[in-house]
From TrEMBL:
Catalyzes the conversion of dihydroorotate to orotate with fumarate as the electron acceptor. It is found in: Cytoplasm. GO terms for molecular function: dihydroorotate dehydrogenase (fumarate) activity. It comes from Trichosporon asahii var. asahii (strain ATCC 90039 / CBS 2479 / JCM 2466 / KCTC 7840 / NBRC 103889/ NCYC 2677 / UAMH 7654). Homodimer. Its EC number is 1.3.98.1. This is Dihydroorotate dehydrogenase (fumarate).
Amino acid sequence: MPAKLRIEPPLLNAACPWASDLTFLRPLWKSPSTGAITTRTSLVNGYPHDDAVNTFLFYDPSDSTSSTSRDPPAFQPSSDSLTGSLNCFGLSPHPLASYLDFIRALAKEPSDKLIVVSVTGETPETNAEAVRQVIAFSKEVPLRLAVEINLSCPNVPGRPPPAYDDGELRAFLAALPDSSPIPIGLKTTPYTHPGQFRMLVSAVKDSGKISFITAANTLGSSVVMTPEGPILPSEGGFGGLAGPAIHPLALGNVVSLRKMFDEAGVDIQIIGVGGVGDANGYKRMRAAGADFVAVATALGKQGPKVFDDINAKL
């Protein structure tokens, strides 16, 4: 049986730009209100980040013409109403080896907290190599690690998220090691119809290698516009939608996955993510069936204190 997650308190950050390096990871590591931390998703060799294109903004979900400029400063909210986010980041510019070095640095500050190393690969083979590197590294440090495979980023040019395609998903799963001493999970796309959920549940059940699902990533093909046109500099202004606007869809994904995995007799833990920014959002996600709850946009907006605020009201 695959290894299981242990996260207490059951609250953590999701893989996001505000987990890119030690300046972001260390405060999350030191926070008494997080039971785990997650690194930004990395490739073995890093992603070709372009500052002119790979950026984000915060916006008002009730008035999408009201937004920050591109790439606003982290943890400096300009308006309480700008709670949504749209990004066209792609993946981390730092290679996986950099994140392993970051974790070595954190190991000098002992904690029982879990570190979820988020990785992906351009192919099933390069993805499996990233997973093998994390597994090997887990034997070198006195820390609890897990690995999250991100098959759901909507912003990688020329490659649809593998989590949307049954053949691709199964190929990525088949390439993984047959066993692992640390938990292996999948970060999924926001699914919108029952066939997609059935596809995922069937593939995960058949593989027998997955411990947890992180549901769900941002919703691609989204645009924030002014009357003059899109704000993001990506082609067409497209990006991944996150924050309160995606919360009902994220809840629906967790409800559906919890029900279907249970009915299929598959023992899967779920990290619920999508639009959680306060204690009520946390409670809704747990009620939907999430074992653990992750935060991204609200972290970028409020900083690590968002976890203190959530915990204080539970």
